[in-house]
Amino acid sequence: MFWKKRRVAETGFVHWRIKKRCLEMILESSKSTYPNEFGALLRARDNLITEVILLPGTVEGDRHAIFNFAMLPIDYSIVGTVHSHPSGNPTPSDADLQLFSKRGKVHIIVAMPFDEYSWRGYDGHGNSIDIEVVE
Ligand SMILES: [Zn+2]
Predict the structure, then answer these.
(1) With contact defined as beta carbons under 8 Å apart, do 126 and 92 qualify?
(2) Residue 129 or 74, more confident
(3) CA of 76 to the centre of ligand 1 (A)
(4) Residue range(s) defining the domain that contains residue 79
(5) pLDDT in tens, 84-102
(6) Catalytically annotated residue among 24, 37, 116, 135
(7) Is 9 exposed, middle or buried (CB count within 10 Å of its CB: 0-12, 13-18, 19+)?
(8) Is 116 marked active-site?
(9) How many angstroms is it from 53 CA to the middle of ligand 1?
(10) Which of 64, 83, 88, 94 sits between 20 and 30 A of 27, alpha carbons compared?
């Protein structure tokens, strides 16, 4: 089994999953923050996203959530970011792509109407990736 794991690591392929209740929390927060943008960090264990962490100093505005990474302790269980797009378009903006490349390996954008179909996962390069929802 060991060689198999190594091979996966070498090809760089990571199968990301997210807990259903964590995704629901993200969607609910995005709805309640609307028309402003919701932003938070993602915490994972073994590539399973289990928790969202609200950053002190995260500024919610009508254009983009500003992530204050200076407030963040070094914590390797934090794997990426999530934020909402009140516009309804889940495509990352130029600012998002910069953010993705700076910090984290997995990023989520949730767009209006913030339901189970209106979110997308991205890697650090802004490529769309599949994130499996698990119970
Ligand atoms: Zn954005």
Answers:
(1) yes
(2) 129
(3) 23
(4) 14-134
(5) 999 999 999 988 998 898 8
(6) 37
(7) exposed
(8) no
(9) 17
(10) 94
